[in-house]
Each structure stands twice: as C-alpha cells, then as structure tokens.
Design a protein that fits this description.
This protein is α+β, with helices and mostly antiparallel strands and 210 residues long. The protein has helices at 32-43, 94-110, 122-152, 163-175, 178-200; strands at residues 5-12, 18-23, 25-30, 55-57, 61-66, 73-79, 84-90, 114-119, 204-209. It has 2 domains: 5-112, PH-domain like (Roll); 122-201. The strands form 2 sheets. A 5-stranded antiparallel sheet has the order 7-6-5-9-8, with helices on one face. It has a 4-stranded antiparallel sheet with strand order 1-2-3-4, with helices on both faces.
Length: 210
C-alpha cells in the first residue's frame, strides 16, 4: 500500500525539536535524531506509534485549522471509532506553521479535504481573549479579596493549610492587597485591549474539512 507522504518532511518545532511528516503520521516535538530513526523504521515497516506522545494518524484527521498570522501551531480534529479528540502540533513560529500547512495542503486535497481561507467574525475573534480576561478578572478578584480579608482576620485556632496557601498568606500579609488589585487591573486592561484589537481587525483563519 502506497504511503500518503512518500517523502519525509521535517520542519522546525519548539525548543530545538522538529516535526516529522512521513508515511501516515505527523509526529511533533521530537529530536532530529529521533526523526531520522523514525524515517528508517517507517521504511523498514517496524515503526511503533505508541512510542510517541505527540503523534497523529493522518487517516484519522477530520479537520485542521490555524490563524496564519498569529498561530505557531495547527490544531487537528482527530476522529476514530472510539472518540473525537483535538491535538495540536507546535512549530517554531508562525512562518514555519504556514510552511507546514503549505507542505500538506495539496496532499490533503487529494484525500478529500476542502480548504477554506476566511476572515473570522468580530465575535469569534473576541472569544479567546474574552475568556482570558474573564479568568484573570475572576482569579484576580479572588486573590485581592482574600488578601484584603487577611488584613482583618482574627486567628482563634491553629490551622492546617497547604504549603502554597501558606506562601500566599505570608506574601499577602507582607505587601497587602493593593499589589494584587493593581496587577489584576493591569492584566484585565491589557486583555481588553487585546480583545478590542482582534475585534477591530479579525484575523484570517485557514481550515480544511474532510
């Protein structure tokens, strides 16, 4: 049976590692030495996919998507008889990610994928930064409230607490609640600016669906 990718494609990944696209697999976050060894094993038909943490069987991919101007990764929707999962393959930067997608797009087209490139809506562009802002605001509010509470609490008995709670309480008792409040406000404002920027100029998203 002919392989999907008959020639190996090696691209730069994160932290000096590489991404290998060869045969029926996309393998992320491996060393160049392991990539060369994997090519040899695939050629000899002794390749064992269970040895890798970040690996995708191309035959199980249903969809992939990424934002070419922002993302240094491609997210794949993987479907098999048991489940539907989402796996991310990370690259060195957004330019390498675009190069990777260009390397696979023609072959994926032959496999029946329909590629689409479009600008997402302002609402969709706001989802990720909006979620980050909400998380920061809620967690920052909790930390600020607890730091404020520590200023007025009266300890009436010995408590057993986790080590990280103990460290937080000592820091809060030392600096007060204002630093937590200021940090929360600054991060929230930065997040809102990020969100409004994305909404004003929604990014392009490339996707391909089988």
């Amino acid at each position: 049976m002919a392989m999907i990718f008959e020639k190996p494609i090696i691209l730069e990944g994160e932290e000096g590692n590489v991404v290998l696209i060869y045969g029926e697999h996309i393998i992320g976050n491996i060393t160049k030495e392991n990539a060369d060894l994997s090519i040899e094993r695939i050629d000899k038909n002794v390749f064992n996919s269970s040895e890798f943490e970040s690996i995708i069987n191309i035959n199980e991919i249903f969809e992939y998507e990424f934002e070419p101007e922002n993302d240094s990764h491609i997210m794949f929707e993987v479907r098999n008889a048991d489940s539907i999962t989402y796996k991310t393959i990370d690259f060195k930067d957004s330019e390498t990610t675009k190069k990777a997608e260009k390397s696979i797009s023609e072959k994926f087209k032959q496999l029946g994928f329909k590629r689409e490139e479009k600008q997402i809506s302002a609402i969709s562009a706001a989802v990720i930064p909006g979620s980050v802002v909400a998380f920061v605001a809620v967690m920052g509010g909790i930390f600020t409230w607890y730091a404020k509470y520590l200023e007025t609490r009266v300890i009436t008995r010995t408590r057993i607490i986790k080590w990280y709670v103990y460290i937080f309480e000592k820091i809060a008792e030392l600096v007060g609640f204002y630093p937590f409040l200021i940090i929360t406000i600054v991060l929230t404002v930065c997040g809102l600016l990020w969100m409004f920027k994305r909404m004003a100029n929604p990014p392009i998203k490339i996707s391909a669906v089988k």
